[in-house]
Amino acid sequence: MNIGILTAGGDSPGLNAAIRGIGKAAIRSHGMSVIGFRDGFRGLMQNRHLRLDSDAMSGILIAGGTILGTSRDKPSRMNVGGVEMDMTGIMIETYEAHHLDAVVCLGGGGTQKNALHLAEAGMKVVTLPKTIDNDVAGTDITFGFATAMDIATEAIDRLHSTAHSHHRIIVVEVMGHNAGWLALGSGLAGGADVILIPELPFHIDAVAESILARQAAGSPFSIVTVSEGAMSVEHAEERTRLKEIKRTSDSEEDRDAAVLRLTELKAERADATHLLSRQLEERTRLESRVTILGHVQRGGIPSPLDRLLATRLGTATADFIADGRHGIMVASRGEEAVPVPLEEVAGHRRTVPLDHPWIKTARTLGVSLGD
Length: 371
Ligand code: F6P
Known about the structure:
Elements (H helix, E strand, L loop, with lengths): L1 E6 L7 H16 L2 E5 L3 H6 L2 E3 L2 H4 L20 E3 L2 E3 L2 H10 L4 E6 L1 H12 L4 E5 L15 H22 L2 E6 L6 H9 L4 E3 L7 H13 L5 E6 L5 H16 L3 H19 L1 H13 L3 E5 L11 H19 L5 E6 L2 E6 L15 H9 L6
Parallel strand pairs: 1-2, 1-6, 6-7, 7-12, 8-10, 8-11, 9-10
Antiparallel strand pairs: 2-3, 4-5, 12-13
The structure holds 6-O-phosphono-beta-D-fructofuranose.
6-O-phosphono-beta-D-fructofuranose binds next to loops.
């Protein structure tokens, strides 16, 4: 059999471990021939590839990023010379030219959708769940998340000592897109006093009161861990209302106005963490500083847990392909690698359920969730 591998979406620790796991199992256990496409779906379109033999995969287990390169290109809306075009047909031509029996797409939510699109167009596709956001449906966990948790938790640990010394509020923004896994996990592991996640819109006064209560109890410093997707109750309500107008209004004028305001709201979110810090300073009269962890959370050596997860899922992927399985994501459920139909994954996001044990733990500890 011949298989191709590509990595798409934001890079994530563990991608190379997964490539190695797939490749080694494919070659050693099943005698397959393996190639990698460069820069996500763009490489599949442009037929830019390399042979993934044992030499090419040697030493990559601990390397961060992806040896294949990545991009956020979509097969159905590929930017070609400034024009968006559907390049699905060209990708199928590349697939057929290499006589591939499967293409393995390593990626997050967007990649699962793109992979389903290719599967519906006739390609045999298998995916793996990769993202630091941990928001892919159908799997217990995604690789990249554990490493990002380690990095964010270490940052919160370090911010604690400076917050404590200066009697300050430190607002630390972590990634996670529209899911609060990373903020909640690292906030709990790092002992944050306030954790704000997208799933629970916050009241700024409730956050300020919790900080003032800590001050009154003798702790004049606080760590606020905020997910990049978190928003105030007012912001969330306006957004929901505008989306409803955009979806249902009979008036074109109202729909256009809603779209315009939604764009403004999105831009306001880019500055939301600084706004939160300013609002907390005003309300508590404590000094506040902002730390935005950004892409540092995605970089560098994958943690042992991510290497293990990616290797487990990668090797299982080769076995599933050898068994003729396709149109699936190889998910992690407990210690098992489980095939999940792509239709059950694509278009679904796994956000933090409001009754999740991590939320209960936070409440039991007295951590403010801003609600
Ligand atoms: O999906 C992973 C992620 O790191 C998100 O947490 C974040 O919102 C986004 O990617 C950032 O994307 P980019 O690297 O394209 O700026």
